[in-house]
Amino acid sequence: MIPEVILDLKAKNKEEAIEELAQVLFESGKINDREGYVKDIMNREKILSTYCGSNIAIPHSVSEVVNKASFAFGRSQGLTWDEDDDLVNFVIILAIPQLKEGEDTVHIEMMSAIAELALDDDIRKLWEDATTEQDIIHTFN
Predict the structure, then answer these.
(1) Interacting residues of 49 by C-beta distance below 8 A, sequence separation 6+
(2) Is the dihedral of CA 22, 40, 70, 3 positive or negative?
(3) Which pLDDT does position 4 carry in this prediction?
């Protein structure tokens, strides 16, 4: 699974970051309703913040507007996630489709693999130093 990548998020806060990354998922056809997806993600954030520590947030939600399980990566110089959190430098937004009974739970494996990568110091250093989108994409393969 190849992520959409934004090397220089313009967002200054959580909602702007989610909107900016949702836009690239929408433009690439991974989701079919940007506003609906953002709403689903923000509702999920109200339940429990997706800030993970280590300057990383992994917002996600199961949503009927997701066409295909996918994700987008954004790098920031430091944006505000929640008031009491450290600044966030990496945002990985997961687009998870509604599953029908009996369908594969690939999204759980996707979330687990991405969280494991995100908490690896060497990977975060690669993300920090990356100069191209391909540098980022390579770390997810």
Answers:
(1) 57, 81, 82, 85
(2) positive
(3) 95
